[in-house]
């Protein structure tokens, strides 16, 4: 029987993973080692009972009593705190889903790789903040990373059986989000609810807003570079409003292989869960005659400066991805709590990168987790200062 753990089980990706695992037999087909969550302990406990998990961990110490009460009599062990989540990755599991949101997902994923596990990687921040370290750790410990971001799963699938040396370019698609056709002035004054209203995908709050600002696509450009090792100039993005083609790979003979599928994350999760084979996944089947039209347009870097910043990060290398992601997380927090406007997010990230580059430098490629965490810490403080400075100017 295969064993598995799900980190970030109570989130959007975690729920879809749980759904697929239950459909494929649940506790009769899988031994569930650990499930982790944050504040939603009621759901975490339900999932742990349904999968007969060995361990359930909440990220927050103050949530432990509620989790313990919800799992009383179930035989499921409980624990709390960031360190307990990392230690949950020490428990042997064949397949590990990394679906915590943000830089908090890095440490448990790294720990799972050190044990040589197969890591289904939804947490894109891991590759953005610590790509070279993550990939080197996987190689050193014989671990496998399977990309779960839909674009990267698509590239991965288009490359099966191909010679990577023959790849000329990779094109990842972007829906354009809810503001695709908005003017700069309209975008400037948008609300959190408007930024969360993604036209095609149903996702967690943070990634939905990142999609509206194109910070999500910016993270994905860097993720593509780090995971597949393509040069930045080989990686393109194109706006494709229907979200049917997730990515394309262009080869040296001019052929382009496209991966198509409905905008449903269970597709990419199911691929990772059934890899190296394929299994039934309950997603809608494409009806191309009904879709009728697939359209494309160039991204607008003036309205969406995140894409330009991603190119700068890829050019700078070192720890710039960790600084970029941390500054973006702070800017996103401050947009969500109403302190800054939508367009201020990119300005805060740009200022943070410029200040760190001028004062401290953006560092060398990381060789240890501590280096990444130190840059993350510095960038969060610098971004906080940048937000404060903007508020004082008002
Ligand atoms: P959600 O916000 O829906 O869920 C995040 C999960 O992480 C929840 O289980 C949450 O717990 C938990 N969590 C939050 N903060 C912490 C923390 N500090 N420590 C430990 N656990 C924490 O996110 P998504 O599922 O949307 O995204 C997860 C990851 O997958 C992200 O990196 C995202 O970029 C990536 N991704 C998501 C896609 C999607 O369609 N949603 C598509 C492709 C990639 P709780 O809710 O209980 O508080």
UniProtKB/TrEMBL annotation:
NADPH binds at residues 10-13, 38-40, 123, 125, 204. Belongs to the DXR family. This is 1-deoxy-D-xylulose 5-phosphate reductoisomerase. It comes from Cereibacter changlensis. One of its GO terms (biological process) is isopentenyl diphosphate biosynthetic process, methylerythritol 4-phosphate pathway involved in terpenoid biosynthetic process. It catalyses: 2-C-methyl-D-erythritol 4-phosphate + NADP(+) = 1-deoxy-D-xylulose 5-phosphate + NADPH + H(+). HAMAP family: DXP_reductoisom (MF_00183). Catalyzes the NADPH-dependent rearrangement and reduction of 1-deoxy-D-xylulose-5-phosphate (DXP) to 2-C-methyl-D-erythritol 4-phosphate (MEP). The keyword Magnesium applies. It comes from the Bacteria. Keywords: Isomerase, Isoprene biosynthesis, Magnesium, Manganese, Metal-binding, NADP, Oxidoreductase. Residues 260-381 form the DXP reductoisomerase C-terminal domain. GO terms for molecular function: 1-deoxy-D-xylulose-5-phosphate reductoisomerase activity; isomerase activity; manganese ion binding; NADPH binding. Its EC number is 1.1.1.267. Residues 4-131 form the 1-deoxy-D-xylulose 5-phosphate reductoisomerase N-terminal domain.
């Amino acid at each position: 029987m295969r064993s598995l753990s799900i980190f970030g089980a109570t989130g959007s990706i975690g729920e879809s993973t749980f759904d697929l695992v239950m459909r494929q037999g649940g506790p009769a087909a899988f031994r569930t080692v650990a499930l982790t969550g944050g504040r939603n302990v009621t759901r975490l406990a339900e999932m742990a009972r349904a999968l007969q998990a060995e361990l359930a961990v909440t990220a927050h110490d103050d949530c432990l009593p509620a989790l313990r009460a919800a799992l009383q009599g179930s035989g499921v062990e409980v624990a709390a705190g960031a360190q307990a989540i990392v230690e949950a990755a020490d428990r042997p599991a064949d397949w590990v889903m990394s679906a915590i949101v943000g830089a908090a997902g890095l440490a448990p994923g790294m720990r799972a790789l050190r044990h040589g596990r197969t890591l289904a990687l939804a947490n894109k921040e891991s590759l953005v903040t610590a790509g070279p370290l993550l990939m080197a750790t996987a190689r050193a410990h014989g671990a496998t990373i399977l990309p779960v971001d839909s674009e990267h799963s698509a590239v991965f699938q288009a490359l099966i059986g191909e010679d990577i040396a023959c790849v000329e370019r990779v094109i990842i698609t972007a829906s354009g989000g809810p503001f695709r056709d908005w003017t700069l002035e309209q975008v400037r004054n948008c609300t959190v609810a408007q930024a969360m209203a993604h036209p095609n995908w149903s996702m967690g709050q943070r990634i939905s807003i990142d999609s509206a600002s194109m910070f999500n696509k910016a993270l994905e450009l860097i993720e593509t570079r780090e995971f597949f090792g393509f040069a930045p100039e080989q990686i393109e993005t194109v706006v494709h409003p229907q979200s049917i083609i997730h990515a394309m790979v262009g080869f040296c003979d001019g052929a382009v292989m496209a991966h198509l599928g409905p905008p449903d994350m269970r597709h990419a999760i199911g691929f990772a869960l059934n890899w190296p084979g394929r299994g039934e996944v309950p997603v809608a089947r494409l009806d191309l005659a009904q879709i009728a039209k697939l359209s494309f347009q160039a991204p607008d870097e003036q309205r969406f400066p995140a894409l330009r910043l991603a190119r700068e990060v890829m050019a700078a290398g070192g720890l710039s991805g960790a600084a970029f992601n941390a500054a973006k997380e702070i800017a996103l927090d401050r947009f969500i709590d109403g302190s800054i406007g939508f367009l201020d997010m990119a300005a805060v990230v740009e200022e943070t990168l410029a200040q760190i580059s001028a004062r401290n430098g953006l560092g060398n490629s990381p060789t240890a987790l501590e280096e990444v965490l130190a840059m993350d810490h510095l960038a969060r403080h610098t971004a906080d200062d940048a937000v404060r400075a903007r508020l004082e100017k008002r």
